Amino acid sequence: xxxxxxxxxxxxxxxxxxxxxxxxxxxxxxxxxxxxxxxxxxxxxxxxxxxxxxxxxxxxxxxxxxxxxxxxxxxxxxxxxxxxxxxxxxxxxxxxxxxxxxxxxxxxxxxxxxxxxxxxxxxxxxxxxxxxxxxxxxxxxxxxxxxxxxxxxxxxxxxxxxxxxxxxxxxxxxxxxxxx
Length: 180
What we know:
The chain is about 25% helix and about 40% strand. It has 4 helices and 8 strands; from the N terminus they run ββαββββββααα. It starts with 8 loop residues before the first strand and ends with a helix.
Protein backbone atom coordinates (compact mmCIF):
# COMPACT_ATOMS: atom_id res chain seq x y z
CA UNK A 1 0.00 0.00 0.00
CA UNK A 2 1.52 3.31 -1.04
CA UNK A 3 0.97 6.21 1.33
CA UNK A 4 -0.80 9.30 0.06
CA UNK A 5 0.82 11.46 2.74
CA UNK A 6 4.43 10.35 2.58
CA UNK A 7 6.55 7.39 3.41
CA UNK A 8 5.06 6.14 6.66
CA UNK A 9 4.92 2.45 5.86
CA UNK A 10 6.27 -0.65 7.55
CA UNK A 11 7.52 -3.22 5.06
CA UNK A 12 6.22 -6.69 5.94
CA UNK A 13 7.10 -8.75 2.89
CA UNK A 14 10.46 -10.43 2.96
CA UNK A 15 11.00 -10.10 6.70
CA UNK A 16 11.08 -13.04 9.06
CA UNK A 17 9.29 -13.61 12.33
CA UNK A 18 10.48 -11.58 15.30
CA UNK A 19 10.87 -7.89 16.11
CA UNK A 20 11.68 -5.28 13.49
CA UNK A 21 12.42 -1.65 14.41
CA UNK A 22 11.34 1.44 12.47
CA UNK A 23 11.88 5.10 13.30
CA UNK A 24 10.10 8.23 12.02
CA UNK A 25 10.80 11.89 12.69
CA UNK A 26 7.47 13.67 12.32
CA UNK A 27 7.46 17.42 11.77
CA UNK A 28 5.41 20.29 10.41
CA UNK A 29 5.02 18.69 6.96
CA UNK A 30 3.53 15.53 8.52
CA UNK A 31 0.98 17.45 10.61
CA UNK A 32 0.09 19.85 7.78
CA UNK A 33 -0.72 16.92 5.49
CA UNK A 34 -3.69 16.04 7.71
CA UNK A 35 -5.11 19.58 7.60
CA UNK A 36 -6.46 19.39 11.14
CA UNK A 37 -6.26 22.52 13.32
CA UNK A 38 -5.32 20.76 16.59
CA UNK A 39 -1.61 20.76 15.84
CA UNK A 40 0.00 23.71 14.08
CA UNK A 41 3.61 22.59 14.28
CA UNK A 42 5.93 20.37 16.24
CA UNK A 43 8.45 17.60 16.23
CA UNK A 44 7.70 14.07 17.37
CA UNK A 45 10.04 11.11 17.37
CA UNK A 46 8.01 7.97 16.61
CA UNK A 47 9.43 4.51 17.15
CA UNK A 48 7.61 1.45 15.86
CA UNK A 49 8.43 -2.13 16.71
CA UNK A 50 6.79 -4.59 14.34
CA UNK A 51 6.38 -7.92 16.08
CA UNK A 52 5.72 -10.52 13.40
CA UNK A 53 4.43 -13.97 14.30
CA UNK A 54 2.71 -16.68 12.34
CA UNK A 55 -0.81 -15.48 11.46
CA UNK A 56 -0.69 -12.01 13.05
CA UNK A 57 1.45 -8.98 13.73
CA UNK A 58 1.57 -6.33 16.43
CA UNK A 59 2.98 -2.83 16.04
CA UNK A 60 4.14 -1.18 19.26
CA UNK A 61 4.45 2.62 18.93
CA UNK A 62 6.32 5.02 21.21
CA UNK A 63 5.91 8.78 20.69
CA UNK A 64 7.94 11.56 22.32
CA UNK A 65 8.03 15.20 21.31
CA UNK A 66 6.71 18.73 21.45
CA UNK A 67 3.67 20.06 19.62
CA UNK A 68 2.44 23.60 19.05
CA UNK A 69 -1.24 23.84 19.95
CA UNK A 70 -3.70 26.67 20.50
CA UNK A 71 -4.48 27.68 24.10
CA UNK A 72 -8.14 27.06 24.98
CA UNK A 73 -8.15 30.18 27.18
CA UNK A 74 -6.32 32.92 25.26
CA UNK A 75 -6.07 31.35 21.76
CA UNK A 76 -2.30 32.00 21.52
CA UNK A 77 -0.09 29.11 20.39
CA UNK A 78 2.19 27.34 22.86
CA UNK A 79 4.27 24.16 23.00
CA UNK A 80 3.09 21.07 24.87
CA UNK A 81 5.16 17.96 25.60
CA UNK A 82 3.70 14.60 24.60
CA UNK A 83 4.68 11.06 25.41
CA UNK A 84 2.62 8.03 24.52
CA UNK A 85 2.83 4.27 24.02
CA UNK A 86 0.26 2.49 21.82
CA UNK A 87 -0.17 -0.96 20.29
CA UNK A 88 -2.17 -2.04 17.26
CA UNK A 89 -2.68 -5.65 16.14
CA UNK A 90 -2.63 -6.41 12.42
CA UNK A 91 -4.26 -9.43 10.81
CA UNK A 92 -4.11 -10.40 7.13
CA UNK A 93 -7.55 -11.01 5.63
CA UNK A 94 -9.92 -10.53 2.73
CA UNK A 95 -11.46 -7.18 3.69
CA UNK A 96 -8.99 -4.47 4.74
CA UNK A 97 -10.19 -2.07 7.43
CA UNK A 98 -10.47 -1.48 11.14
CA UNK A 99 -11.98 -4.39 13.08
CA UNK A 100 -11.82 -2.90 16.58
CA UNK A 101 -10.14 0.07 18.27
CA UNK A 102 -6.70 -1.53 18.22
CA UNK A 103 -7.13 -4.24 15.56
CA UNK A 104 -6.84 -3.64 11.82
CA UNK A 105 -7.05 -6.02 8.89
CA UNK A 106 -4.86 -5.67 5.82
CA UNK A 107 -5.16 -7.48 2.50
CA UNK A 108 -3.46 -10.89 2.32
CA UNK A 109 -1.28 -9.69 -0.56
CA UNK A 110 -0.13 -6.42 1.05
CA UNK A 111 3.61 -5.84 1.22
CA UNK A 112 3.57 -3.03 3.76
CA UNK A 113 1.42 -1.48 6.46
CA UNK A 114 0.63 2.23 6.08
CA UNK A 115 0.90 3.71 9.59
CA UNK A 116 0.78 7.49 8.92
CA UNK A 117 -2.91 7.86 9.81
CA UNK A 118 -2.49 5.64 12.88
CA UNK A 119 0.46 7.65 14.13
CA UNK A 120 -1.42 10.92 13.63
CA UNK A 121 -4.46 9.63 15.54
CA UNK A 122 -2.33 8.31 18.41
CA UNK A 123 -0.48 11.63 18.66
CA UNK A 124 -3.75 13.60 18.74
CA UNK A 125 -5.07 11.26 21.44
CA UNK A 126 -1.95 11.93 23.53
CA UNK A 127 -2.70 15.67 23.70
CA UNK A 128 -4.20 16.93 26.96
CA UNK A 129 -7.97 17.44 26.90
CA UNK A 130 -7.65 20.99 28.21
CA UNK A 131 -4.87 22.90 26.49
CA UNK A 132 -3.87 26.01 28.41
CA UNK A 133 -0.57 27.81 28.88
CA UNK A 134 1.38 26.50 31.86
CA UNK A 135 1.86 28.63 34.96
CA UNK A 136 5.20 30.26 35.71
CA UNK A 137 7.36 29.62 38.78
CA UNK A 138 5.25 32.10 40.80
CA UNK A 139 2.00 30.29 39.92
CA UNK A 140 0.81 32.96 37.48
CA UNK A 141 -0.64 32.12 34.10
CA UNK A 142 1.52 32.66 31.03
CA UNK A 143 -1.53 33.31 28.82
CA UNK A 144 -1.83 36.48 26.77
CA UNK A 145 -2.42 39.24 29.40
CA UNK A 146 -4.71 41.27 27.11
CA UNK A 147 -6.98 38.29 26.55
CA UNK A 148 -7.05 37.49 30.28
CA UNK A 149 -8.19 41.08 31.01
CA UNK A 150 -10.94 40.78 28.40
CA UNK A 151 -12.11 37.47 29.86
CA UNK A 152 -12.16 38.94 33.37
CA UNK A 153 -14.20 41.94 32.17
CA UNK A 154 -16.69 39.67 30.42
CA UNK A 155 -16.93 37.44 33.48
CA UNK A 156 -17.59 40.46 35.74
CA UNK A 157 -20.26 41.79 33.37
CA UNK A 158 -21.93 38.38 33.22
CA UNK A 159 -22.00 38.04 37.01
CA UNK A 160 -23.61 41.51 37.31
CA UNK A 161 -26.27 40.44 34.81
CA UNK A 162 -27.05 37.30 36.83
CA UNK A 163 -27.32 39.30 40.06
CA UNK A 164 -30.14 41.45 38.70
CA UNK A 165 -33.44 39.67 39.03
CA UNK A 166 -36.17 39.77 36.37
CA UNK A 167 -39.51 40.75 37.97
CA UNK A 168 -41.42 38.44 35.61
CA UNK A 169 -39.53 35.43 36.95
CA UNK A 170 -40.02 36.64 40.52
CA UNK A 171 -43.81 36.62 39.95
CA UNK A 172 -43.65 33.07 38.57
CA UNK A 173 -41.52 31.91 41.51
CA UNK A 174 -44.19 33.33 43.85
CA UNK A 175 -46.92 31.31 42.10
CA UNK A 176 -44.86 28.11 42.31
CA UNK A 177 -44.14 28.64 46.01
CA UNK A 178 -47.89 29.23 46.72
CA UNK A 179 -48.84 25.91 45.08
CA UNK A 180 -46.29 23.84 47.03
